[in-house]
Amino acid sequence: MEGKNEDKLVLVTGGGGYLGSVLIGDLLNQGYKVRLFDNFMYGLDSIANFINHPNLEVIIGDIRKNEDLKKAVSNDVDSVVHLAAIVGDPACAIQADVAVETNFISAIRLARMCRDNDISRFIFASTCSVYGASETEILDEDSNLNPISLYAETKIDAEKDILVLLDKQPAPTILRFGTLYGLSPRMRFDLVINYFTKKALKDKELKIFGGEQWRPFLHVSDAAKAIQLVLESPIEKINREIFNVGSTNENYQMKEIGEIIKTCIPDVIINHIKEIKDKRSYRVSFDKIERTLGFNTSMTVRDGILEIKEAIESGKIANPDDPKYYNYHG
Q: Does the pTM exceed 0.85?
């Protein structure tokens, strides 16, 4: 589709990543001009399908380096989508200093540059992990934050400072994504749905620790769709707003995920283990983004499991244990 978006240049940091590579493809298909900024630590394969697109500019750089950021941010950028981060609790825990510098300090530096460069919108990718652990309450954007990981802490700190710093322009929007899953050009198998599906197919056995923990799940394509919706919504609807991104119907207990996998991969044996390795548990309301922007998800956890199963069984993903599919090994 060409026309309404062709004059708008969107800078996407982390555009070669799990979510970024899906988003870039969508934006190019919708006629946007895109500047992709990434260090490509996992290689360039994720952007192979569109690397030669005439509306795509690729800048290889480090989000922590001021001179690299200056190349990415210029007066012709209309909007910024900031995805670049050390993602996930384990990856942040093993390189804490880098996580703080990347997820917090660099985010604020980028926001300050955007403020000084006449950019209209700044979309910050956060996470529902900021809610941490909540026994029964369904959490919305005004609920207390209870981070139990460095990853969540860096995102909370960045959220707060971005909203203070960007008091006039650009218009900041915070998107707290549910736990992502699904196929991506930069595939990951260290995300719970993707990992469980791979494990069930390969080992025919799946261990679920605890099982009572709640988690909201979001397909990566729906996450990309939400970002595009914020880019295109009237600025008064998204300015200085925080949105949980997902579907209230896609909150599941981990034991329920095991049951869904069993329906998709019937020969798997599910072993429930009382020990809890991951104490995060939160049920999240996504009413605000639906009410304010009309956002609805298209994909379910079952859909995601089936598409990953097909990709592995067909050989599209030849070796899901390849280290390139993991942000963290442990």
A: yes
The residue assigned the tokens 């049920």 is: 283
In a domain, 42, yes or no: yes
Strand 179-181 versus strand 214-219 pairing type: parallel
Residues 156-168: tens digit of each pLDDT: 999 999 999 998 8
Look at the chain and count its residues: 330
Reference 216, options 177, 190, 255, 182; nearest CA is 177
Same structural domain, 26 and 175: yes
pLDDT in tens, 174-224: 999 999 999 999 999 999 999 999 999 999 999 998 888 999 999 999 999
Q: How many CB atoms lie within 10 A of CB 46?
A: 25
Task: Give the integer Cα–Cα distance in Å for 243 and 32.
Answer: 23
Q: How far apart are CA 308 and CA 183, in angstroms?
A: 6
User: In which domain, by residue range, is 266 found?
Assistant: 185-215+248-280+299-325
